[in-house]
Design brief:
binds 2-oxoglutaric acid; binds fe (ii) ion; alpha+beta; 475 residues; Jelly Rolls; metal ion binding; 12 helices; 22 strands; metal-binding; single chain; 8-stranded mixed β-sheet
């Protein structure tokens, strides 16, 4: 049996209703769009991943290893190091390359091929800066309509990538809305939700600026005042916090014509596209990251462990073919005969807010529905293969209305290997049970200081750190 995921056209779903509706079931949907740019961006990264893993040398492995970089989760992860289901006692037979967005990773990038880097740059432009904000906006709108207004506000704010890219450190980022009046959607107003994000004081001399040439812009504030452009100069948008404090360090300079009539944003959490065609040319001039992060060097270990401010991570994943010799007899044969599966990525739910996943043609993703593992339909002719799935944070924030369903990856027996294994013994590496598999996943996380666990007032960074500690215990 195969599970057909709902399809959501993210460009047409302006109100977010289709996405919200699609996620009501298992929290998984296929994202489609009129434009092919999004899947093309994923496909290019996947092609580059193929080349990267096939050419990887032992020297590259140690040079690029996770743990060597400023962002603790960035870098190369070898086969068997990660266990997505640590409770099973098994690690995953896969390798990965992690790019973390919250810290500069130039030295890591300097070791990578031109083709991989240019695929990643295009990916950042199209997926990170266009598709992800679009999805955040759609979800935020839907959450608000479904009575999760305060959550929606925080949700959008917590994913304000432009702020991050502009170099606003956690201390110098937009003030958050005063949530003390917020009530949970299911409540009648009797109980108020704890603020989900800390409010930071702004330092007037932080000087964080982001010059934005045409393009989409997310401006997140409770109140904004526009300052007319000086003749020939930039226009400024001054951000005012909910407490009425003007924050000069949070000025965002938007160059003409981006401002032309499109940027009046009158309440928190609104994300506007300045114009669709302009948004293709988004150009951020984001030079200012905190000094420790901006340096991006491989320093002594303590320095390397400087926390990132955004854990959002792009992962290139490679599942090498499973040799026939490693397959227990019971696993061979038709799916009816099979009594066990070869698990390539252990059962887990994703840790962040949501994930965008692009698999190659091999497939193998399964969802846990009740007590059963169910294959996801993987038919590129129906859906171009971009899976959206809710992570634990989204599930918590929607009080479980959207679930972060457990999933895993299993090896797909290769037709030829199953039918005639002996013919394949001449193949390099010997006869194999399954084809090698590649996938690309973007794990979208809230900004580090966002409170995701209200009960214990734990931040996104703390919660993620704990999950990663368990995941990487085979290191
Ligand atoms: O590789 C895949 O298709 C899925 C991997 C996954 O679920 C994960 O890494 O969280
Ligand atoms: Fe996952």
């Amino acid at each position: 049996m195969q599970l057909r995921l709902p399809l959501v056209n993210v460009e047409r779903d302006v109100s977010g209703a289709s996405l919200y509706e699609a996620l009501q079931g298992v929290g998984f949907a296929y994202i489609v769009a009129d434009e092919t740019v999004y899947t093309e961006a994923f496909q290019s990264v996947l092609d580059a991943a193929r080349e990267f893993f096939r050419q990887l040398t032992a020297a590259d492995r140690s040079k690029l290893a996770r743990g060597n970089w400023l962002a603790p989760n960035a870098g190369y992860v070898a086969v068997g190091v990660e266990a997505l289901a640590p409770e099973s006692g098994l690690s995953d037979p896969k390798e990965a390359l992690n790019f973390v967005y919250g810290a500069r990773v130039e030295p890591l990038e300097a070791s990578l091929s031109h083709s991989l880097l240019s695929a990643k740059r295009a990916f950042d432009r199209v997926v990170l800066r266009r598709l992800v904000p679009l999805l955040v906006q759609r979800l935020g709108t839907a959450l608000e309509r479904h009575g999760c207004g305060p959550i929606a506000t925080v949700f959008c704010r917590a994913h304000a990538f432009v702020d991050l890219a502009a170099g606003h450190t956690p201390e110098h980022r937009c003030a958050c809305p005063d949530l003390s009046r917020c009530t949970r959607s299911e409540d009648t107003g009797a109980r108020s939700a704890a603020p989900l994000m800390k409010v930071h004081e702004h330092s007037p001399d932080a000087g964080a600026r982001c010059s934005l040439e045409r393009g989409e812009m997310m401006r997140l504030s409770t109140c904004q005042e526009q300052i007319p452009a000086a003749p020939g100069g930039d226009r400024e948008t001054r951000t005012q916090t909910s407490k009425g404090t003007v924050s000069p360090d949070l000025r965002v300079c938007m160059k003409q014509p981006a401002l032309a009539g499109h940027t009046t944003i009158d309440r928190g959490c609104e994300i506007r596209e300045i114009s669709d065609s302009d948004s293709r040319n988004l150009a951020l001039d984001c030079a200012m990251l905190p000094p420790g992060i901006a340096r991006g060097e491989r320093g002594p270990p303590e320095e390397n462990k400087a926390p990132s401010v955004l854990a959002t991570t792009l992962r290139l994943l490679h599942y090498p073919p499973v040799p026939l010799t490693q397959v227990p007899h019971a696993t061979c044969g038709t799916s009816n005969e099979r009594t066990s599966e070869i698990v390539l990525a252990g059962a887990h739910s994703d840790y962040g807010t949501f994930t965008l996943l692009y698999q190659d043609e091999v497939g193998g993703l399964q969802l846990k529905i009740g007590d059963h593992w169910v294959d996801i339909e993987h038919d590129p002719t129906r859906a171009p293969g971009l899976v959206f799935n809710a992570g634990d944070v989204l599930s918590i924030w929607t009080r479980g209305r959207i679930s972060s369903t457990k999933h895993r990856v299993v090896a797909r027996p290769e037709q030829t290997a199953r039918n005639d294994a002996t013919k394949l013994s001449g193949r390099p590496g010997g006869a194999r049970y399954s084809a090698e598999r590649f996938s690309v996943a973007l794990f979208v996380h809230p900004l580090d200081e966002t409170i995701v666990d209200e009960l214990n007032a734990r931040t996104a960074a703390q919660v993620l750190h704990e999950r990663l500690q368990r995941t990487y215990r085979y290191e």
